[in-house]
């Protein structure tokens, strides 16, 4: 299936989810996650009208960034090891996986401009997932005030892998409530307006629950086995 066709289908579903939840579809940004696909397929996505590209590994990111550069905004959505920060930090527009002070310090040291970050939250406490526990988020965000290279624009999570819609919805809802609480504090370094949540299998629920950035790989650009 062409990316254009997939995108059309996803946009229709976003519009429907927005109608159900009384939201404006313009507030939902689609990030094409290209980690499973080639440079060619990534370029096809851009031609289809995608403005945001997400990669979760240094190698995949550099391989695509080298050719695409500023034809897209770049989202680093995977765990970022501190020693790799210097290779990506001045090229990416958004980091979705800020979850520790050691990473924060490294970004502060290496970045030559402010980095827009989502703080990653492990809402349901799954052992296999990265991210802060919900109760750790506010103290962490408060501490980030000391690091002018960091701007907290929102929170990010991955829902549990389950067919149980209620579990997924609760996860997204909890993240939104946490976001609302931080937003109310009106930290100048952490406006925290955005919610990065929702992937191929759960983005419609995420949109209903307030997602502003959905990260879609398989259902948008597909998954190539290389
Ligand atoms: C791979 C990945 C996605 C996209 O996953 P799909 O299920 O293919 O849409 C989204 N977010 C993160 C953090 C990922 O690693």
UniProtKB/TrEMBL annotation:
Start and end residues of each Alanine racemase N-terminal domain: 6-222
TM annotation in the entry: none
Keywords: Pyridoxal phosphate
PROSITE patterns documented for this protein: UPF0001
InterPro entries according to UniProt: Ala_racemase_N (IPR001608), PLP-binding_barrel (IPR029066), PyrdxlP_homeostasis (IPR011078)
Recorded GO MF terms: pyridoxal phosphate binding
SUPFAM superfamilies per record: PLP-binding barrel
Pfam family, one: Ala_racemase_N
List of residues that carry N6-(pyridoxal phosphate)lysine: 35
Protein origin, superkingdom: Bacteria
Similarity annotation: Belongs to the pyridoxal phosphate-binding protein YggS/PROSC family.
Function of the protein: Pyridoxal 5'-phosphate (PLP)-binding protein, which is involved in PLP homeostasis.
Protein name according to UniProt: Pyridoxal phosphate homeostasis protein
Upper taxonomic lineage: Bacteria, Bacillati, Bacillota, Bacilli, Bacillales
């Amino acid at each position: 299936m062409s990316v254009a066709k997939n995108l059309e289908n996803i946009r229709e579903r976003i519009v429907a989810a927005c109608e159900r939840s009384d939201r404006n579809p313009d507030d939902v940004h689609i990030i094409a996650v290209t980690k499973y696909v080639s440079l060619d397929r990534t370029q096809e996505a851009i031609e289809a009208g995608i403005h945001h590209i997400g990669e979760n590994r240094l190698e995949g990111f550099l391989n695509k960034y080298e050719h695409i550069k500023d034809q897209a905004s770049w989202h680093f959505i995977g765990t970022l090891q501190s020693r790799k920060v210097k290779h990506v930090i001045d090229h990416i527009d958004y980091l979705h996986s800020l979850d520790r002070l050691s990473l924060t310090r490294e970004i502060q040291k290496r970045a030559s401009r402010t980095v827009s970050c989502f703080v990653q939250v492990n809402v349901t406490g799954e052992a296999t997932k990265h991210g802060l526990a919900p109760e750790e988020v506010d103290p962490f965000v408060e501490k980030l005030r000391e690091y002018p290279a960091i701007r907290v624009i929102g929170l990010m999570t991955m829902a549990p892998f389950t067919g149980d819609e209620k579990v997924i919805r609760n996860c997204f809802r909890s993240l939104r409530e946490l976001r609302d609480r931080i937003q109310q504090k009106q930290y100048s370094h952490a406006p925290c307006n955005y919610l990065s949540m929702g992937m191929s299998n759960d983005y419609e629920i995420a949109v209903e629950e307030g997602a502003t950035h959905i990260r879609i790989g398989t259902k948008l650009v597909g998954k190539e086995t290389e």
